[in-house]
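Re: [help] complex structure
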Amino acid sequence: MAQYMLMVYEEEVDAAEQAEREHVTPLLLELHAGLREAGLLVDVHRLHATGSATSVRVREGQTEITDGPFAVTKEVLAGYYVLECADLDEALRQAAGLPMAPWATIEVRPIMPAEEWLETARRAGVDLDDEDVRNLA
Amino acid sequence: MSAADPVTAAVAQAFREERAIVLATLIRQVGDFQLAEDAVQDAFEAAVTVWQRDGVPANPGAWITTAARRRAIDRLRRNRSVADRAERLAELTRLDARHEEPTMHDESTIVDDRLRLIFTCCHPALELPARVALTLRALGGMTTGEIARAFLVAEPTMGKRIVRAKRKIADAHIPYRVPADEELPDRLRGVLRVVYLIFNEGYAAAEGDRLVRGELCDEAIRLGQMLCLLMRDDAEVWGLLALMQLHDARRAARVDAAGRYVALDAQDRSLWDQDRIRDGLAALERAVRLRRPGEYQLQAAITALQIQAPDAETTDWTQIAELYGALAALTPSPVVELNRAVAVGLADGPAAGLALLEPLLAESALERYQPLHAAHAELLSRAGDADAAARAYERAIALTANAVERAELERRLGALL
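Output below.
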């Protein structure tokens, strides 16, 4: 088993069309309940619209705060899942089965296990204990 | 490499014949593409030295399998990032202690592993050029340098492409298995597409290093033959093999002494490879007997009809037109429609062909599609409309970048006047 993040990107639409889209909610309820029951749903969240986003950068010691998302694109991150899947094929199947799939683009990314993260940092010469893995992720 | 050296020749032969089988099984056993490939590479390097010293073993494949497995055990002991490392090490060590090669005799295991490997290499989550490169490297036995030269890409570029694909297979857990029944038709179509792309890359090359690119045709046919062995009940797998063999049979006749392309009806038929044609027709027959028509079979059947007729006049254009009709219903495209119109024009006269061409000529996306205007000119000329034919030839000539093609079109235009 591996964990995947399914990032749901969609175009932000006008109120009328958004209201249309809300009608997938009963399908989502059913889907989430099924995934949770099967022990596959690690996390799921819907995000507020990009109008509420703030981006932060620290450059040369100065904190810059800008209104808006990291990148201005037509399709924006609207929410995400973290799912347990047997392999990429299953993760892709789950993505294709999301009720938003007909209008959204779902980016599927494997999550790096904490052990691998620790190992990667160690290979770069960082001194870490095996215990640290619990605090890493 | 000198062919006179028996050890070098034996290693080369083992590389060609056994590498994919050994690699496919080892990937399943160690669960890591890169590690398995490195271990197999180690084994072949060791073979050069050891076989030189001790002689070529009676069963080179078994020798390579054992050596690769031992190298894999060594590498696995040093590599902590492989999942289920302890279980895999235990299994490999157990196999190693058996002093025999059960998998070498177990045909179905070999078949399954090679199928797993080809479906992994052709996984749709990998970019298409990476699928092509991985397939050639893992199953075709070509080196990264050879693949890079065949695709006219710098070797480091090709190397990076392959490394990135293998890393994605590992990081994203692209499964090592034959897809489930409900996914199989789609995924198999993807595999056949990769193989046909490899073939066309070699076949369409009129210029460049022809020797290396002919090798791509050979590799694609070898892959096609392997798929036929692994999936003998799939009609399209046979159809693709037939199509590739029937095209490939004419490879030598497609290029003249000056390296220029020669069209089918101008080819020297004595240069056609009759053995290849026989193989292609046999594969086509096998496909047709399975009674599951598909695009590759239809294209192969069209090619077979063109090849079997002694010349263009005696070709069965009626049947070819019907086959193009079936192909258009299955995979509609302007190219298929155009070919159908040409065939109908030859079967039922130019007026019938022109009628089919009308909708294509009205499409703005095809305004600059040279073959359309060349075919239009040809049909108009045969219909006796010299003025309209001349205009269509001029249009086609204006869209032609290739000097040989332009000369031919100009000759035809001149013949009108």
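The mean pLDDT of chain B is 89.
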